[in-house]
Design goal:
It is a single chain. By secondary structure, this protein is mainly alpha-helical. Helices cover 80% and strands 0% of the residues. Helix 3 runs antiparallel to helix 4, helix 14 packs parallel to helix 17 and helix 16 packs antiparallel against helix 17. This is MFS transporter, DHA2 family, methylenomycin A resistance protein. Keywords: Antibiotic resistance, Membrane, Transmembrane, Transmembrane helix, Transport. It is found in: Cell membrane. It comes from Streptomyces qinglanensis.
Length: 459
């Protein structure tokens, strides 16, 4: 990297000149905006589902794939995206990912059919996977001082709360004003701003020689896609399709395991996965995103069935999304004083309770107040559990595995999101009257993750 000529004189390393701070702040804003764009796309589409289904004449299964083609590719490629950033240079991978995200979003907005939209959403998932690990690497290069780096990462992470909090509301406003295509067009100016703010030589990183095992990576992506396809087909009662997809998942999963055993550059960090506490933490992260992504998929369809407009649906999500913006500082203080176990366990229990309340409320067709209570419990659960899980998994990692924590945890979370959309969306294929089963599944998954994580922590 070429920051040397901008560094302060000897003896003032902890106090960079104001011009340097401003320049770094501008670049950090661009990197954080890229993360905001990626996370916004995971939530903003949810409110557009009813309008999208009517416009493209698609079924619940089509909507599931429109959402899941993004998360499946995102989850699978996250495993190797960090290695790719090391090999090609983080700045090249990040800026290429941001440009592809903007172009892919424009193509999504122009999609004439749901099949075309699914393909373009897969492209967005690959672009998102390129952006996330490389953005963290760039922050590390931009802020080598540990205290400054911690503050920069905190600012970067705070963007996630803002993206999740504003996604459904922004989506509702955009759909109400211009239809579902507008939720993708918003990414075009955002991507242009990211490229403009990060157009500096100070971000240039050298190329490395880290190896990537592409056959294993492709096998992992195929396995996750086939599992997801099998769950979606089961929801439509297409049992031969289900059997074929799950059988294919078993074959590709076995092929992935064999490739991993022989690989000199394995996709998964074996040392990290060998730690029981780390596995429990990864399962907890997957469970959190299972419940969150599944709820974001199911609820807009139910609220539209109650006669709510897109903007009203976005507003109805506020009890779920507001905790993302306001609760992380409290979670940070709890982790600092008592460790990650209480907020992770408490968050999973709150998620299970939220799923149970939503299941009862949708079964009884209760007034919105009951749905709001379930959404608030879900939002509090996610905002307690997710920030603490990073510390929990990192603390469980063996020596030498710490660098893999972020990539594997994010991949586990996105895998959980893919399975949540598939599993919780499956009952809706039989009609919105089956929605209580979707939330009951989320409650069981989160309760099981809480029992596993708590049991491992006690041992």
């Amino acid at each position: 990297m070429t920051l040397d000529k901008h560094l302060p004189p000897p003896g003032t390393a902890g106090r960079p000149r104001p011009a340097v701070r401003r320049r770094r702040g501008t670049v950090l804003a661009g990197i954080s905006l890229g993360y905001f764009m990626v996370l916004l796309d995971t939530t903003v589409l949810s409110v557009a589902e009813p309008d999208l289904a009517a416009s493209l004449h698609t079924s619940v299964a089509g909507l599931q794939w429109a959402a899941n083609s993004y998360t499946v590719v995102f989850a699978a490629l996250l495993l190797s995206a960090g290695a790719l950033a090391d090999r090609l240079g983080a700045h090249r991978v990040f800026r290429t990912g941001a440009a592809l995200f903007a172009v892919g979003s424009a193509l999504c907005a122009l999609a004439p059919t749901v099949g075309a939209l699914i393909g373009m959403r897969a492209l967005l998932g690959a672009a998102a996977a390129a952006c996330v690990p490389s953005s963290l690497a760039l922050i590390g290069r931009l802020y080598p001082d540990r205290s400054q780096h911690a503050r920069a990462v905190a600012a970067w992470a705070a963007i996630s709360g803002a993206a999740v909090a504003t996604g459904p509301l922004a989506g509702g406003a955009l759909v109400g004003a211009a239809g579902w295509r507008a939720v993708f067009l918003i990414n075009v100016p955002l991507g242009a701003a990211v490229l403009a703010l990060t157009a500096t030589r100070s971000l240039h990183c050298p190329r490395g020689d880290r190896q990537l095992d592409w056959p294993a990576q492709l096998a992992a992506c195929a396995c996750l896609a086939l599992v997801t396809d099998g769950l979606i087909a089961a929801g439509a009662a297409a049992w031969p399709h289900t059997a074929a997809a799950l059988g294919g998942a078993a074959v590709t999963g076995a092929a992935f395991a064999r490739l991993e055993r022989r690989s000199t550059a394995p996709v998964l960090n074996r040392a990290l996965l060998g730690a029981g506490a780390a596995r429990a933490g990864l399962a907890a992260g997957a469970a959190v995103n299972f419940a969150l992504a599944g709820s974001l998929f199911v609820l807009p369809l139910l609220l539209t069935d109650r006669g709510m407009s897109a903007l009203e649906t976005g507003l109805a999500f506020l009890p779920l999304t507001v905790p993302f913006a306001v609760n992380p500082p409290l979670t940070g203080r709890i982790v600092a004083r008592r460790g990650p176990r209480p907020p992770v366990l408490g968050g999973l229990v709150l998620l299970a309770a939220g799923g149970a309340v939503l299941a009862v409320a949708t079964w009884a067709r209760a007034p919105y107040g009951w749905l709001a209570a379930g959404l608030l419990l879900t939002g509090l659960g996610v905002s307690f559990a997710l920030p603490a899980l990073v510390t929990a998994v990192a603390g469980a990692a063996p020596p030498g595995a710490g660098g893999s924590v972020g990539g594997i945890l994010n991949a586990a979370r996105q895998t959980g999101a893919s399975l949540g959309i598939a599993a919780m969306g499956a009952p809706l294929a039989a009609g919105t009257g089956s929605a209580p089963w979707a939330f009951a599944v989320a409650a069981v998954v989160c309760a099981g993750a809480a029992a596993w994580f708590g049991g491992v922590q006690r041992r």
